[in-house]
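During the reporting period the student researcher (J.K.) took over the structure-prediction task from the postdoctoral fellow and processed the backlog of single-chain submissions. One of the processed entries is reproduced below for the supervisory committee.
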Amino acid sequence: MIKITKSMFRKGWIYFQVYLIILKQLFQIYSFSLELQKFYSMKAILKKKLKKNFILKSFFYFYSLPRLQIENYSIEKKKIFQNRLGFIKRFRSIFQKDMLLKNIFFLIPINYLENYNRISNEIDKLKISDGIYIDGNEVSFDFIKFYIAKLKLNKKKIFSGQHSLRTGIDDYDTFFDYSKSISNYFLTWGWRGESKIYKKFSSLRIFSSLKKYKKIKKIDNQIVSICFILCSFSRVGECLYENFVENKKAEKSRIDLLRILKKQKKIEFFLKPRTGSFLMSNTNKFYKKFNIMKDKTRMYDVFGKFSIIIFERLSLGIVESILLNQPTIFYYPKKLYQIKNKHYRNLLFLMKKANIFFDDRKKVEEIISSKKKIYDWWFDKKNVQIRNEIILKYAKVFKNKDLKIIKKLIK
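J.K. obtained the following structure tokens:
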């Protein structure tokens, strides 16, 4: 008689589960005659139970590109400095003719010079997939750039997904320009671009959000609490309006609105900041009048916890709020930089019709100070109808059948 240990039972159970997954996948192939492709993705949603569901209901084998721990190169400043000087001396004749190239070479990131061989060797160990889906990860991780380069050299497809509600419809977004330059196709959240690389798709991020957050079943009838979602200000950013002068004007507009709203004594106000939310000096005393949440507070602690949420930048959170039934306002005054992209302006036009977007402070004051019930504003039939139009055109929620679009494009 064979003695079954816990370890043997555990392994057997794992093999049995894998067997069931394979059987189900084979049945899917037989039933729908779909071609299976090996496809890498860096999406966080393709993990655990959701990843299994994704595989079993699609025609792709999705693999998460491993997070390689190869970018922690030890920085010895003196040694790196000497190495760069050595290269400049070696290619002196070239650099003498091109000072710009010399400066670029001197400031090139470590991962592309001193750490290049280490990353490149690890990337070479990865098998070449039929394609990769990215939506912002490529900006943060150099090893992904290395792998993308490998795919492009082998003429594989790069699919760049829209990362945020603003991606692709902003003015002068250098991150987006980079993503577009390396991609065969840019998959939007529902809008149609002018270039052939733009393809109407849907949002995996919103799909993920609807799996994480619960839809709000009951909302406050009267306004008792407001959460102001603060954006992160930078002195020099990736977009035209992301600079110290414009951001200083934006923070002043925020303070002007908060100062007026604070007069509503029966309403409790909370500020949800991010790193860089407070740009102007000598404002600590003013902000202390409000309940300030921790920098890393998640939206789990926001949705459904407040009567109204106010955003000061066009954000994913706005469409999440619409889908989750969270009363929301987007306030962006006229005196701030006005984006000219036609898709952006059309989205604002729809939001204004739906009474979500306001560029006049007095209009926001009217809603907050009104004795009317929230239901009269949020559940107005016209407002609800236009909110649904916004989702359909600019924030379409991903469905498994949408993968057919990728299947068609990857051939």
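The committee noted the following: The longest helix spans residues 6-32.
J.K. will present the remaining backlog at the next meeting.
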